[in-house]
Design brief:
This protein is of the alpha+beta class. It has one domain: Roll (2,3-Dihydroxybiphenyl 1,2-Dioxygenase, domain 1), CATH 3.10.180.10. β3 and β4 form a beta hairpin. The longest helix is centred in the N-terminal third of the chain and has 12 residues. The chain starts with a strand and ends with a strand.
Length: 134
C-alpha cells in the first residue's frame, strides 16, 4: 500500500473506559476529543489526543463482540494500529494485489464518521491493521 500517510491512531482494548480515559488524561496529558458507541460492533470508544497522535480506547459492551472476545482471550492491551490513507478503495486494491488478506473487502463507516477497513493480522506481521480514509 503506497498510500499510507501516517499512523492515524492506536487502538487499545480496556476493561474500564472511564478509568482508562482518566489515566490517559492524568498520566499523559491526553485530551478526550470524541466518545461514541457502536451497538452493532458492541463497542464504546473514546478517542484521546496525545500530542499529534490519537489513542482509541475501546470497551466492549457485549462479551460476544470482537473487542469482548479479544479481552477474554488476551486481556486488555494493544488491539490494532490504524493508518491514514487518502483513498481507501485504492489502498484496499493495492493491499489485495500485494497478497494481504482483507477482513473488509469494502470500506465501512468508522467511529470517527469516515470510512475504514481492516486487514487480517496473519498477513500483516501479526498486527490487526486498520485503514482510515483521512
Amino acid at each position: 500500500m503506497k498510500g499510507l500517510t501516517r499512523i492515524h491512531h492506536v487502538g487499545v482494548a480496556v476493561t474500564d473506559l472511564d478509568e482508562s480515559i482518566e489515566l490517559y488524561r492524568s498520566a499523559f496529558g491526553g485530551e478526550l476529543i470524541h466518545r461514541a458507541t457502536n451497538d452493532r460492533e458492541g463497542l464504546e470508544a473514546a478517542f484521546i489526543r496525545t500530542g499529534s497522535g490519537e489513542v482509541e480506547l475501546m470497551h466492549a459492551t457485549r462479551e460476544d463482540s470482537p473487542v469482548g472476545k479479544f479481552v477474554a482471550k488476551r486481556g486488555p492491551g494493544l488491539h490494532h494500529v490504524a493508518y491514514a490513507v487518502a483513498d481507501i478503495e485504492l489502498a484496499l486494491k493495492q493491499a489485495k494485489e500485494a497478497g494481504v488478506e482483507l477482513i473488509d473487502a469494502a470500506p465501512r463507516p468508522g467511529m470517527h464518521g469516515g470510512r475504514i477497513a481492516f486487514l487480517h493480522p496473519k498477513s500483516v506481521g501479526g498486527v490487526l491493521t486498520e485503514l482510515v480514509e483521512a
